[in-house]
Write a structure and sequence with these properties.
Heat Shock Protein 90, Helicase, Ruva Protein, domain 3, 8-stranded mixed β-sheet, 6-stranded mixed β-sheet, 16 helices, 14 strands, globular, binds adenosine-5'-triphosphate
Length: 536
């Protein structure tokens, strides 16, 4: 009896795989499905706007489509660059179809999110997704109703039409009906938007829920936007055999020297020659002539070679210290916020930048541990904090070295941007442990923590001075009274000289300065100007 008689083999289409395993893309239950749907659509909207320097305006409307069956309708509209009409079916109907498989920072990476939304809707309510989109300067608006042929991983067009674009609209609007629990998902969705606004204060959001008074509006706080990322080439340290084979196939006759200078980030002629020498090959050898062993050796050497330039960070778009501070101030309303954007760094040839903000006091509730807000490529990570390397690092820090005593009103924001975020899963909720990233996160947090220590030290000194001033003034009044009685001098003059004397003694240049929380320059010099790294 042949094996085929007892074991049946079959292939699975990508769409079928994700229909069966939707948990790994974040669609694990009805509450999570709503959150994940909104998140995937909003992230596409943000990518379609800010990557092209358009200030994002995003509308999210939730309605009950059929309350007895827990069917929820979700509508998301943006003012982005839109989608070309002929691309719409594949964009929503073919798993692993994307414009973001490029070396450039995006929120999206997998080419999966929008399709998961369609798959989930289809699997729970059997209704198509409605898409309307108008690219920039388009005379028409395209409208499609789409489903997915799951076994073929292909779009099924249920209806299609074009409409006149009377008002010059551009952007994309999507309506989808799925089974979900809005009452439970609501808080998560609101929190997600609040956190998104923290790192994108240049965006505005309207969220309207199905019930009366169920609406929130997050206004645009600034019109400043980060510079969009440029599109890059792979760094030689990030390659593998398959990538090199694909590049060779495109042009097998290309000499090795040109192959290197044309296809990789930061490889000039001199570096390419040194490298080819290091491998022991000839610069004019056509790259297609590399035999298997040579090819494998070539790739291994590419990763070993230490003469490459560092990966360029032009493919990244960090938020920037000012914009991040504005977002954090607006959302968390702290007493004070410190931010830092670290210099670019890299892991395995992938450039990355870590940014951190520390918010202290004000509306932040004191808690026993720092409150952590994690972001990757401007996406808030809400679930799975326990598995995240950022939580681990924050917990390792000895906060007493920064004068923080818990419970304390302390929030830490960490943003990692990279052309390749090492996510721990397809749901994009936690960042895996990568030593280079860990060390940058640690440095970023320490940098803002040092600013906090300086701030707390100053505040303590100010408190001390205010106390002394109050006590001295109290006694001064008695002295002034007694002096004026004995000498018959003018009491007002005496009082004024006494106040001047006290201020001089306390080194307060202007009393108003003290009340405004700023000390004289002398005090500043005496404070922690020489700020040492605590030896943790
Ligand atoms: N609102 C939108 N405006 C413009 N283009 C969009 C919009 N939504 C989706 N797209 C296009 O559709 C493509 C596929 O989107 P999808 O959400 O499936 O994957 P992705 O964003 O590329 O990656 P990920 O799965 O990581 O989110 C995007 O790459 C983008 O080109």
């Amino acid at each position: 009896m042949g094996t085929n008689d007892i074991v049946k083999f079959e292939a699975l289409s990508p769409a079928e795989f994700f229909r069966r395993n939707r948990e790994i893309a974040g669609f694990s239950n009805p509450t999570r499905a709503i959150y994940q749907t909104i998140r995937e659509l909003v992230e596409n909207s943000l990518d379609a706007t800010e990557t092209f320097k358009i200030l994002p305006s995003i509308k999210i409307y939730i309605d009950y489509a059929n309350q007895s069956r827990s069917w929820i309708s979700i509508y998301v509209e943006d003012n982005g660059i839109g989608i070309p009409g002929d691309e719409i079916p594949n964009v929503f109907g073919r798993v692993f179809y994307s414009s973001k498989y490029r070396i450039k920072q995006h929120r999206g990476i997998f080419g999966l999110g929008a399709k998961m939304v369609v798959l989930y809707a289809q699997s729970t309510t059997n209704t198509p997704i409605l898409v309307r989109s108008a690219p920039l300067r388009s005379n028409v608006i395209y409208e499609y109703q789409l489903m997915i042929d799951i076994t073929k991983n292909e779009p099924v067009i249920m209806s299609q039409r074009t409409m006149e674009n009377k008002y010059g609209w551009h952007g994309t609007a999507i309506r989808v009906v799925l089974e979900g629990d809005w009452s439970k998902a609501k808080r998560r969705v609101e929190e997600y938007l609040r956190r998104t606004a923290m790192v994108a204060p240049y965006a505005e959001f309207v969220l309207r829920g199905p019930d009366e008074d169920d609406a929130i509006k997050i206004p645009r706080v600034t019109t400043k936007m980060p510079d969009p990322p440029k599109e890059g080439l792979p760094h030689p340290k990030s390659v593998d055999v398959e990538l090199i084979k694909q590049l060779i196939q495109k042009n097998p006759d290309l000499p090795l020297l040109e192959f290197l200078t044309e296809n990789f980030d930061g490889v000039g002629e001199t570096i390419a020659k040194t490298f080819i020498d290091f491998v022991g090959l000839q610069p004019d050898m056509p790259v297609g002539k590399l035999i298997n062993d040579e090819l494998i050796n070539f790739v291994t050497k590419m990763r070993e070679f230490n003469g490459w330039r560092r990966p360029r960070a032009d493919w990244l778009s960090p938020i920037g210290e000012d914009i991040l501070a504005e977002g954090v101030k607006f959302v968390l309303r702290p007493e004070v916020v410190f931010t830092v954007t670290r210099k670019p760094s890299s892991y395995m040839g992938n450039p990355f930048i870590v940014e951190a903000a520390l918010a202290w006091g004000g509306a932040i509730e004191p808690s026993d541990n720092p409150i952590i807000y994690r972001f990757a490529n401007k996406v808030p990570l809400i679930y799975d904090e326990g598995n995240d390397v950022i939580r681990k690092i924050v917990d390792e820090i000895d906060w007493t070295q920064y004068k923080v005593k818990f419970p304390a009103p302390l929030a830490i924001v960490v943003h990692i941007c990279s052309t390749k975020i090492p996510y721990a899963s397809a749901g994009k909720e936690a960042i895996a442990e990568v030593p280079e990233i860990e060390s940058e996160v640690r440095n970023a947090i320490r940098e803002v923590a040092r600013k906090l220590r300086l701030y707390i030290t100053r505040k303590e000194k100010e408190q001390e001075l205010l106390m002394k001033y109050a006590i001295f003034s109290m006694y001064a009044e008695e002295v002034v009274n007694a002096l004026s009685y004995v000498t018959k001098a003018d009491i007002e003059e005496l009082r004024s000289s006494m106040t001047t004397l006290i201020k001089e003694k306390l080194k307060i240049r202007r009393f108003e300065d003290l009340l405004n929380n700023s000390l004289s320059s002398e005090d500043e010099n005496n404070s922690e100007a020489q700020d040492h790294e605590p030896s943790s």
